Amino acid sequence: MITVYSKPACVQCTATTRALDAKGLDYNVIDLTEDDAAMSLVTELGYRQAPVVTFGEDHWSGFRPDLIARLAS
């Protein structure tokens, strides 16, 4: 399952979810401003910017169309 950890008014977050939609991928969005546990998880993974995308053991930060394309293949 793909999870996108996002923040309101985040341009890269919007670009990420639009790209996932365009590829027809299912995902969950978690708002980091409303979920302290999610914020802790993202911080523990070493990230300081949104979005953070997780898929199984894989994860990345920022808008990464190359990695989104890999998820779709």
TrEMBL record:
Gene3D superfamilies given in the database record: Glutaredoxin
One GO term (biological process): cell redox homeostasis
Pfam families named in the record: Glutaredoxin
Full protein name: Glutaredoxin-like protein NrdH
Cited function: Electron transport system for the ribonucleotide reductase system NrdEF.
The organism of origin for this protein: Alloyangia mangrovi
Transmembrane segments: none
InterPro entries on file: GlrX_NrdH, Glutaredoxin, Grx-like_ET, Thioredoxin-like_sf
GO molecular function: electron transfer activity
Presence of the UniProt keyword Electron transport in the record: yes
Family: Belongs to the glutaredoxin family.
Domain Glutaredoxin, chain residue ranges per copy: 2-60
